[in-house]
Prior knowledge:
The chain is an alpha/beta fold. It has helices at 8-14, 18-29, 77-89, 96-103, 107-126, 183-193, 227-230, 232-248, 257-269, 277-287; strands at 44-47, 52-55, 61-63, 133-141, 157-166, 169-177, 199-203, 216-220.
Amino acid sequence: MKMPAISLVEWQKKFGTEKTCTKVLAKVRWSQGFQCPVCGSQNCSLIMTRNLYQCSSCKHQVSVTAGTLFHATKIPLVKWFWAIYLTASDKGGISALRLSKQIGISWPSARSILKKIRMAMAHRDSIYRLENLIEFDDTYVGGKRAGKRGRGAEGKRPVLVAVETRAKGAGFVAMQAVDTVSKKSVADFLAFHLKSGQTVRTDALPALNSVAKDHVHEKKTTPPNKTSEWLPLVHIMIGNMKKFLNGTFHGVSSQYLQEYLDEFCYRFNRRFWEPQLPLRLLNACLAHVPFKIAEFH
Length: 297
């Protein structure tokens, strides 16, 4: 769905008050209009101080944020909306420290907001399945100790990466941090992120042989200096992802790696709609019902 571009000034005018933000959230939550869960009445009044809608008939109160991304939040919705805009509008992303200073909240609160925004990003991307010719490889990210690179490196987390190939370059990309690169973790990743029956191109790592179960598997043994010729797009994605992590967040621990990967993929997959991104992300956050994204081990 195409969304209009929106400037900082326009955002402030459109979502500049708590009442406006509350009504926007209520409109998404109750698209057919408010209906009291107790008596069924459609008449209500808004209690602004608590973000509650009170039934005009039976006086039952319903929180507009309950069961949403903003559930039980003590932070004003205006600041949530600002966080969404700042996250979307900065091409390189925004750190929790910078966000806390920008909207005047504590670092733990900023960290929590960003985590939930990235959950909405992951949820939105989880709806899509990669198709056609797909390049697939693994890489290693993180680690605080210098030493061996690649497979077997201490303190690093393996990441599976798949990217669609299209006539003009890369299509959609998917990334998943795993405990180990095994036939099971590969099979789980492919089942979650790819349509069945696609053509998947890899190197000849034995753990990737499970690709052939549900897909056409094209594999080739390649020396390190030739991998970029056989799998050019996936290696560009890996390089861009590592620059993203190091540039904005100055690296990332294994514990939080997946949510940063989710943000990178969400941004990349919408790179041609950059002016629309603030409203697209707002829509994703408003519509998001929290759930646990599948984990692969």
